[in-house]
From TrEMBL:
This is Osmoprotectant transport system permease protein. GO terms for cellular component: plasma membrane. Keywords: Membrane, Transmembrane, Transmembrane helix, Transport. Residues 176-370 form the ABC transmembrane type-1 domain. The chain crosses the membrane at residues 44-64, 71-90, 102-122, 134-159, 179-202, 209-236, 242-266, 297-318, 324-344, 351-374. SUPFAM superfamilies: MetI-like (SSF161098). It is found in: Cell membrane; Membrane. It comes from the Bacteria. Belongs to the binding-protein-dependent transport system permease family.
Length: 382
């Protein structure tokens, strides 16, 4: 059998090697404001650079006759290489900061290029569905644990993003909590509203357009425009004693919460309708023949069979809302978006990253968890 090259594996590893060799990986700045000097990795390290180059060459060689076992090796080796690069940057920055306590290290294009290629390599390895796929996840967990250990031991304290975190530690955790409240709370509210609406559209076909068309229209309204539309009614509502005690007003958490909830209705409602509609009518007729009433058919047949598709809609809504909650910072709603807009105003990319990175981590984690749950439910149905 003719052996072939796996072109995605070859391209990702080759581009990672180019980023390692040719692009600046960091910028060393004397303080937060002053411009710094940019460095490539080989200018900061000696022997470790050769190890990283060899690692990416190995990843390129794995593209020849790329099999399940090679996918596992690639999925483990690539995050290990990235963790090693972070460790080297941390050690070098600590040595450089001994005589300059205000010095900070900011990541440059080469770092983000390597990070992107490592992400693609891990994803490509997982897409091959190797027999020992769990080893890739173990490698990711081990690499993550090593980076967390280095973080808590102070190896990354010279990194600019860590300095920004230390300066705004209390505000960060407050904003993180607000972001979770806005995103998870709005998804829960959307779930409670959209599932009954989707079921209503399924039960009454004549009402489907009356339910789904308004939800589709809501989805097309730009976020800032929707905030403006909600300003007047929420300001009026906030004059009532009960809502005033809750802090409801034309600005703040209320318009952000309402807007995010409205944006979750279409993906959850549409998937609820599709989920119920895809249940085979012969299964429902068989349940009726067994003497089940409408409530029992819903609880034991309809809802369990539609649940995987409903959860898919929930996953879409959750990913959408975690990112959309950033805009709450524009109307005083808090959340991690306040770091994003503050960083943009101050010209501080690391402050922007301080708001963006937790959102990316939460999004990927929740998306993977719900995707695995949907896959498990569908496997149980078979």
């Amino acid at each position: 059998m003719k052996k072939k090259l796996d072109y995605p594996q070859l391209v990702y590893s080759f581009l990672g090697l180019l980023a390692l060799l040719l692009l600046n990986i960091s910028e060393v700045k004397p303080n937060r404001i002053a411009p710094g000097e940019k460095f490539r990795l080989f200018e900061l390290s000696g022997l470790p650079m050769m190890i990283f180059v060899m690692g990416f060459l190995v990843l390129m060689l794995l593209s020849y006759d790329f099999s399940g076992s090679k996918a596992v090796v690639s999925g483990i080796l690539s995050p290990v290489l990235f963790a090693g690069i972070l460790f080297v940057l941390g050690r070098v920055s600590l040595d450089m900061a001994k005589d300059a306590p205000t010095m900070r290290l900011t990541f440059s294009a080469g770092f983000y290029g390597i990070l992107l290629m490592v992400y693609l390599l891990v994803g490509h390895g997982l897409s091959k569905k190797p027999r020992r796929q769990y080893l890739i996840y173990m490698g990711l967990l081990l690499s993550g644990a090593v980076m967390v250990f280095l973080l808590t031991s102070g190896q990354f304290q010279v990194f600019s993003i860590m300095k920004e975190f230390e300066n705004k530690r209390a505000q960060f955790f407050t904003s993180f909590t607000e972001h979770l409240f806005l995103s998870m709370g709005s998804v829960l509210a959307g779930l409670l509203l959209a599932v009954p609406l989707g079921y209503l559209a399924y039960r009454r076909k004549k009402l489907e357009s009356f339910v789904m068309v308004p939800l589709s229209i809501l989805e097309t309204i730009p976020s800032l425009s929707l905030f403006g539309v909600l300003l007047v009614p929420l300001a009026a509502l906030g004059r009532l004693p009960f809502f005033k005690a809750l802090g409801v007003s034309g600005i703040g958490w209320a318009p952000a919460f309402v807007a995010l909830t409205l944006y979750t209705l279409l993906p959850i409602g549409r998937n609820t309708l599709v989920g119920f509609s895809t249940v085979d009518q012969s299964v429902i007729e068989a349940a009726r023949g067994m003497g089940m009433n409408r409530s029992e058919i819903f609880r034991r047949i309809l809802f369990p069979l539609a649940l995987p598709i409903i959860l898919t809609g929930l996953r879409i809504a959750m990913v959408q809302t975690l990112g959309g909650a950033v805009l709450a910072g524009l109307v005083g709603g808090g959340g991690l978006g306040s770091f994003v807009f503050l960083g943009l105003a101050e010209g501080s990319p690391d402050l922007v990253l301080l708001g963006v990175i937790p959102i990316v981590v939460m999004t990927l984690s929740l998306d993977s968890t719900l995707k695995a749950l949907v896959k498990r439910l569908r496997r149980d149905e078979l």
